[in-house]
HTH marR-type domain-containing protein (Priestia megaterium), 205 residues
Amino acid sequence: MKKRKFKIDFTDAEQNARLRDLEVEKEKFKEDHHGIEQEEVNQAMETLSKATGKDIYIGTKRSPKSKVKFAQFIQDNWDYALENNYFTDEQMLFLLRVQRYMQFKSNCIVDDIHSRSAVPLTQKAIAQRLKTSAPKVSRIVNELVDKGVIVKAQGQKMEGKNARTYALFINPNIIYSGERDNIETTLKALFANSKPLFKKFPVTL
């Protein structure tokens, strides 16, 4: 007795499975958007786009966590710097210790990163914060200036003195206190002259 061969067509089964997946996705969207369906959201977006003449996107209110101050270490560049002895141990330690004073977005070393009226820290003040000597900080800062890692921006003359104050900025290609995709134009301009020094570094912001 010959066995009968059955040919199974999976097309219908696949289509049904896909339909079930779509239904699950729709229900999940409704759950995540307080009962509003995807079609309603799309229609509302299209109406707003026509009314404003601009592309509209959905944004959400920032959570309290978004106010947390943070500094990003550009890992590929640090890896390159360490593999090629770009920093001395002393310079690395200085950068690690001073990053907690980097102002959000500006990368300026300031007295209080949480204050809107923060004041740039002088090298003497940095030395006091780090519990080390001013000459040592001055030497390390000058070394890092030569390497394009720090820029000194000249400030105003101090009252009653001939010397001017300097604000110190850290190169965002090494450490950046802010969003990598939204670096301040002024900060980029400060380090425009240091680009040749970082030509071989893997990441350029």
